[in-house]
Structure formats: structure tokens, C-alpha cells
Write a structure and sequence with these properties.
The protein contains ten helices and 13 strands. The chain is an alpha/beta fold and about 350 residues long.
Length: about 350
């Protein structure tokens, strides 16, 4: 499978010859495009955000679309039969409670309401709602993506609970920390992928003596794509304050927090990144600034689209491109993962 981070929907070859997928927490369609690139037919989605659902529908025209919380979706008794014979159930449960840039433990167990005025949810239980849905639908494979912070310190107990619930649902499961920059994506984005296979379908060997962890090779060693490979040296000027700070940058600075800590004695705006030409672009998040180290310009939507491996002709439906790309799994990352899952498990 030959895939490239620079691509368009109009030229993509979506073969739909490898099986069916349903996407939960589908956001703007990042993972969906990955499955389509890998030859799968994504027949539907579940999403709580009407803005994201509108973007998804405009680009993917799903056969089944459910705009509602997963807590109510998993209880539905009117789901079509196609959802009970899925090859893959996909999902990226919201993960800010475990993100290294969030409050982590302080937010665990707390209800949160998204800015679009949606239902209050306890974010760290959504993964278990997703597993309950898998138990109900019994797809052949379940793929779930989440943040690196899930594997750090006390959050590891949460991972153990995930493994227990997958076991109860009838699945062997493994998890791997993957880096998109090793997979042909021009972005240093580390994410945990949980790959689960229904126990009655797995015929392979196990990694552990207890026969719980199925073998799956998810090693990627592709050549890194540097910022200089995609920079267009265009973009919008910084505000006066940010420009003044940018002028004080030194070669070791990777974000504006490095600059302010050195020049003002306080780390400010550390999520606003400086992109250096000889490095892989850092993780693109939904709200931070991404500034060309050399020119002092905010990078363009064109470059952001390349960083996220989104198609260049994607219709963001008047929603800021960075918001959708930053909230989504890079399509190419999903495509590379599921291609290996297909070849080794399916």
C-alpha cells in the first residue's frame, strides 16, 4: 500500500474491498479517511458535536449517522443489522483528562460540558461506554486511539481497567505507543492504539505466558518528514506582543514558553510552537499557534493540512481547519495501522 501525506479526495482510490467499519467519536473524519485509504467501507458514525457531524456528513455522506452521546447510542435497540456484522468498530474517546497538556488527575471523575453546549459527560468513563458498545455489536476487530498520557504514572491503573473490560467483552487486546512521524506523517504525534480481536477469531500466538496479549507487529520506521519539506514561507503576521517575543528567540527555543521563561522569568504561551526547518513539526493541537521559526509568520492552513495528512481538498465547512485537524487522528496514521492489522489478523 503506497500512501502519501500529500493527497486529495478527488484522486483517492477508495476500494472498499477489505470490510466494513463504524466510527465512534468520529469528529471531522480523520480516522474514517484512514480506513478508506486502506480499502475499508466506513458505513456510519456516532458523534456528539453537531459542528463536527456537519463536517463529517459533508465529506463522507455516511449511510448511518447518529448525532448523540455514546451513552444513549449504546442503548439503542433499533440499530441496523449491518452494525451487528462489522469487521471493525473504531473509536477515539475524548482524552483531555489524560492529556499531558491538561489537568490530568484533577479532572478524573469530573463531569465536563463541551463548549458547543452538549451533554455533560465524565470523560474518563467514555472508553468503557465504547467497550460496552463493542460487547453489544461484537465486531471482529476493535481499534481505539488515545493520548500518550494514558500510559504515564497513575493513569496506568485506568489502562488495566480497559484491558479487563475488553476481556469481559470477549476480546484479546494489546496496546502500542506509536509515533506518526515514523509512519509518513509530517508531525511528531505520539498516540496509544488499542487493537482488539474477538477471541473466537484469533488463531495466532501470544506474547505472554498467560495467553492474553495477541501478537501484532506495529513497528514503523519510515523516513521522517521535516518542516522544511512542507513549509511555504507564507502565512499571517504575529501580533505585536508575539512578534516582540519571537524576535528574542534563540536556536534552542521550541515554543514561546521557552522565550518568556528566559526573557521574562515566567513560562507563558508554552503551547504556542516554533517550527524549525530541520525538525519534524510538533503535535498540531486544536488551539495552539504554529509559527515558522525563520519568518515569524503563523503557518498557513495549507501547511496545517499537510501536517495532519488531511486531503488538500477537504471541506472544513467554515470551521477552522486547525481545530478539526488538531482534534482528529491523522488519516495516514490510521491507514498504516489498519493495513498491518488487516494483513496480520484479518
Amino acid at each position: 500500500m503506497v500512501l502519501n501525506y500529500k493527497w486529495t479526495l478527488k484522486d483517492a482510490d477508495f476500494r472498499k474491498n477489505r470490510g466494513t467499519v463504524f466510527s465512534c467519536f468520529s469528529c471531522g473524519g480523520g480516522s474514517t479517511m484512514g480506513y478508506k485509504l486502506a480499502g475499508f467501507d466506513v458505513i456510519g458514525c456516532n458523534e456528539i458535536d453537531p459542528v463536527m457531524m456537519a463536517v463529517y456528513k459533508k465529506n463522507h455522506n455516511p449511510k448511518f449517522a447518529y448525532l448523540e452521546p455514546i451513552q444513549t447510542f449504546k442503548l439503542r435497540e433499533d440499530l441496523p443489522k449491518e452494525l451487528y456484522s462489522l469487521d471493525i468498530l473504531d473509536g477515539s474517546p475524548p482524552c483531555s483528562s489524560f492529556s499531558m497538556s491538561g489537568n490530568r488527575g484533577k479532572d478524573w471523575g469530573k463531569k465536563k460540558k463541551f463548549k458547543e453546549g452538549q451533554k455533560e459527560q465524565i470523560l474518563d468513563t467514555l472508553f468503557f461506554d465504547f467497550i460496552e458498545l463493542a460487547k453489544k455489536l461484537q465486531p471482529k476487530i476493535v481499534i481505539a486511539e488515545n493520548v500518550k498520557g494514558l500510559l504515564l504514572s497513575e493513569a496506568k491503573t485506568y489502562v488495566n481497567k480497559i484491558l479487563i473490560e475488553f476481556d469481559k467483552a470477549g476480546y484479546y487486546v494489546r496496546y502500542d505507543l506509536l509515533d506518526a512521524s515514523k509512519m509518513g506523517v509530517p508531525q511528531k504525534r505520539e498516540r496509544v492504539f488499542f487493537c482488539a480481536i474477538r477471541k473466537d477469531l484469533y488463531k495466532g500466538e501470544f506474547e505472554d505466558m498467560f495467553q492474553t496479549i495477541p501478537i501484532l507487529d506495529l513497528v514503523f520506521k519510515e523516513k521522517e518528514i521535516l518542516f522544511k519539506d512542507i513549509a511555504d514561507k507564507k502565512g499571517t503576521p504575529l501580533t505585536a506582543l508575539y512578534h516582540t517575543r519571537w524576535e528574542k528567540r534563540i536556536i534552542t527555543d521550541s515554543n514561546f514558553g521557552d522565550i518568556t521563561l528566559r526573557t521574562e522569568g515566567q513560562k507563558k504561551c508554552f503551547s504556542d510552537k516554533l517550527l524549525r526547518y530541520d525538525y519534524v513539526p510538533p503535535t498540531l493541537t486544536s488551539g495552539s499557534s504554529m509559527v515558522d521559526y525563520e519568518t515569524g509568520l503563523n503557518i498557513t492552513d495549507y501547511v496545517k493540512t499537510l501536517i495532519g495528512s488531511f486531503p488538500l481538498d477537504y471541506d472544513f465547512n467554515k470551521t477552522p481547519a486547525q481545530y478539526i485537524i488538531g482534534m482528529s487522528v491523522p488519516p495516514l496514521m490510521t491507514a498504516k495501522v489498519i493495513d498491518k492489522v488487516y494483513k496480520q489478523w484479518m
